[in-house]
Amino acid sequence: MSTTIDDIAKACGLSRATVSRVLQNSPNVSARSRRLVEHVIQETGYQPNKMAQSLAQGFSNTVALIVGNISSIAQIEIAKVIQKGLYDHNYMVWLCNSDYSTELCDSYLDVAMANKLAGTFLVTASATPKKLMQATNSDMPIVMIHRQDLASSCDSILGDDQKAAYQSVLYLLSMGHRHIVLLGVPQTMIAGRNAYWGYRCALMDSGFPFSESSVYEIDITSYSDALKSRNPFDVSRVFQEHPNTTAVISLSHEVAIDFYLQCRKMGKQIPKDLSLISLDPVQTSMIPEISFSTFGANQRALGQAAVKQMLERIQARKSSKRDTQPYISSNIIIEPTFFEGNSVQKL
Predict the structure, then answer these.
(1) Fewest CB atoms within 10 Å of the CB: 96, 141, 143, 256?
(2) Which run of H or E residues covers position 240?
(3) Which residues of the chain have pLDDT under 70?
(4) How many C-beta atoms lie closer than 10 Å to residue 207's C-beta?
């Protein structure tokens, strides 16, 4: 017969309520009582009934983590930080790959609501505005990373892509580059919009001409290959349309890797023939001979900020604060940092 919470209480000589508070990490327990309960739990091997705890608080101890592209190094780095951070607070993570499909993301949110999950992270994944409203109206907190939805009560953790792009241009100009191309994403995405304006403003503020043709809006969904065949950006376009280009700024790490590999097939060397900066500060072991110079928000910092925000929202949900206080979404901006790799050459 398995050990129950009543058995633990009897062995400790404490009330059932006190043992329950220890199991829930409540601060309203004396240090002596906590040590005693933890000792007896260790001796007996007691495992609390997570399902019963979930029913008592109205939601489970599981959080959904929906990523846009599970093969993305940057997104997996964020996911690892989130998983570890939540595990340390007794929450499990349900990892889902949306493949940048809003339909699939909506389906995952339906499952999360139906199973009364504690919350949901959207890492570059996008749901429809209607589904986001349904989720937040169900009292389930949503924390978005690299995404923003002003119409719903979703928190956003964002890198300062405008500042990162601005600093990247200034850095390349200081290295003697005058013909710089931006490989961005559609401006319907906040990252694409901010990178565009950072790039544009840096050139104009520095007295250099800006051309719309030097900005390529790349369909980032084509770099998610789990449910569809890859259809990457054709790098030869850059050299055909801008033969004087000496440097490229890539908003996405996946695009930067593909750009490098396509250049290598074309017989062009980085940085000898072309310098390359990524606004995604991660590296890859796929190409050991190159380390990208990067400007961008650190993935660990993004993940840690997301975990902190989610835990605060879950705690507020437990204490029913959202029944008495209006839900005001937060936009947390993470500052970019610079890493000097070997992908940029001074002219």
Answers:
(1) 96
(2) helix 236-241
(3) 1, 48-58, 225-231, 320-327
(4) 7
